[in-house]
Specification:
Structural class: alpha/beta
Distance between the termini: 25 Å
Order of helices and strands: EHHEEHEHEHEH
CATH architecture: 3-Layer(aba) Sandwich
CATH topology: Rossmann fold
Oligomer: single chain
CATH superfamily: Isochorismatase-like
Largest sheet: 6 strands, parallel
CATH class: Alpha Beta
Number of strands: 6
Strand content: 15-25%
Helix content: 25-40%
Length: about 230
């Protein structure tokens, strides 16, 4: 994928190719969104009912992408960022109360988004491969957008950040919500395609088409590293 011409919706067919972004390390942060234990843990398939096994199988491509692509690429990108003076930030969904009464309405709706993740419980923690190092900042949110539901806006301002590189899950939900919020605050946003995932590849790619060229630029981790000349 060429980031300058790929993943364009109808709105941007024929639009001029964007210039390479100027990403000064001291003004740039990587934000890893919601890569938490609750989304990566799976039961023993053999212990499930036929209906549950069907649902399990529907989610298998997501888990394969996470373990084979997203987590390794994000870990590598974080390592390069740390070596080059780029801030590494993390966001996670978690509630401050045991019964989740402090959650936003979207996280109380029946179905997939009805998450009860008390902040100190194991399911709400970031996965082992993508843990913060030293004094890297983790914000806890009860909303989809990491900007709306936390003090991340103030943190980014205080750090002098102007460019935010987004990774994480889910592309069409919390990643997209965060990207749109950041864009509305006039941050320059980049989404790393091979460091994100949605429930299906179709949803992932369609959402990238929707947000690309207006709320962010979408590129691969290789393209980002080339633009920023990231090396250990």
């Amino acid at each position: 994928m060429n980031w300058k011409t790929g993943l364009r919706s109808l709105y941007y067919v024929g639009a001029p190719e964007p210039d390479d972004p100027v990403l000064v390390p001291a003004q740039t942060a990587i934000l890893v969104i919601d890569v938490q234990n609750t989304y990566l843990e799976r039961p023993d398939r053999a212990s499930l009912s036929p209906q549950e096994q069907h649902r399990y199988d529907l989610w298998t491509p997501f888990h394969e992408r996470m373990h084979g692509t997203v987590i390794p690429n994000t870990a590598r990108l974080l390592e390069l960022a740390r070596a080059n003076g780029i801030e590494c930030l993390f966001a996670r969904i978690a509630c401050h109360t045991k019964d989740g009464r402090d959650r936003s309405l979207s996280q109380k709706m029946p179905g997939w988004n009805n998450l009860l993740l008390p902040k100190n419980d194991a399911p709400s923690q970031l996965v082992a491969e993508l843990q913060p190092v030293g004094d890297e900042i983790v914000v806890t949110k009860t909303t989809d957008s990491a900007l709306t539901g936390t003090n991340l806006r103030l943190i980014l301002h205080n750090l002098g950040i102007r460019n935010v590189i987004c990774c994480g899950i889910f592309t069409d939900q919390c990643v997209s919500s965060t990207v749109r919020s950041l864009a509305d605050e006039s941050y320059a946003v980049i989404v790393i395609e091979d460091c994100c995932a949605a429930a299906t590849d179709e949803l992932h790619r369609k959402e990238l088409e929707i947000i690309n060229m207006i709320y962010c630029h979408v590129m691969s981790s290789f393209e980002l590293c080339k633009i920023m000349a990231l090396a250990k």
